């Protein structure tokens, strides 16, 4: 808007200058004709009068209509005309009609007016025309009209810009929700033709993604559900086998069936979705302590170093799933010892899950956050579906946070989760905060 205002102001100024420039020619001609008429009538009157009557006639003519006539001495010091385009143009027009020898002076001898010389025989005279319209007052009315034009133009530009900006703002917001794993409502197809086409194309793309996601969810859910029943029967049958047949083979089969069941469980977690869970004001440390207790009971060594308690908007089940996936991944690939730390910065809570494994090549960090991506050669040939980190990244984005993988300088991997302390607060979040802030609640 500021650029439009500056351009409009520059255009108005240029228009006024052009108008003033092209108007100066007729103004100069009118002023020159006025001076030429006065000089010619004065000269004609003096020529028609008898020589004995010229002095009396000069006295009589002087003072009428403000015009004065003086005898001229060509040895007088003549000051040059001021550097004014209009004055010089008037003097040029006068000389064109009265002759190149005509002198034109402004405010001679301190007497205001336009001084024009003429000769009668050997006598030289000055005609002083005080009321010639040489200067023009500042055109305040032009300034007012120009300001009105600028205001109307800015109003029109604002309406046009708003008509363009509103659909673009909705599009950016919808694209942001789509990138975080949410499906936005259809965009209104309004505004300019190009914007309507963009909104319509975006809506079609969103609908196609929704259909694709629903088909993928249905496919994975159906396959996973159908596989769990025969796996359960197979495990039951294997466990009922007598130990004397082959105890080691039986244990291996049970372990393989457990791994397959775990992979199917991850499939179901991935397709089940977590967008519908309500947000609550919760302490991240409480969820971490709950997850750590389960690992401690399982005999795993999990070290905790937590920052002070701080309530932030969380989806409890989704965040618990994220923490579980990160810690399980660290135990699976990190050498059996895992450390979890949290710290609070100006606007974020940063959670780090640290292991002592071999790490990951820097060029492959982003790949591991995609579904079904695995790097067994770098982190050991462990079984898995490649969905654990993808689910964690999806949950992090749903919380307006970010999940990054970093190689530790002393060796091992850091899975760093950054969560905003004050994200965009919804009505649901406000209600949850009021409930948790009641006296007596922890």
Automatic annotation (TrEMBL):
Transmembrane segments: none annotated. This is histidine kinase. PANTHER family: SENSOR HISTIDINE KINASE ENVZ (PTHR44936:SF5), SENSOR PROTEIN CREC (PTHR44936). It comes from Methylobacillus flagellatus (strain ATCC 51484 / DSM 6875 / VKM B-1610 / KT). SUPFAM superfamilies: ATPase domain of HSP90 chaperone/DNA topoisomerase II/histidine kinase, HAMP domain-like, Homodimeric domain of signal transducing histidine kinase. Residues 222-423 form the Histidine kinase domain. It catalyses: ATP + protein L-histidine = ADP + protein N-phospho-L-histidine. It comes from the Bacteria. Its EC number is 2.7.13.3. It is a multi-pass membrane protein. Keywords: ATP-binding, Cell inner membrane, Cell membrane, Kinase, Membrane, Nucleotide-binding, Phosphoprotein, Transferase, Transmembrane, Transmembrane helix, Two-component regulatory system. GO terms for molecular function: ATP binding; phosphorelay sensor kinase activity. The keyword Transmembrane helix applies.
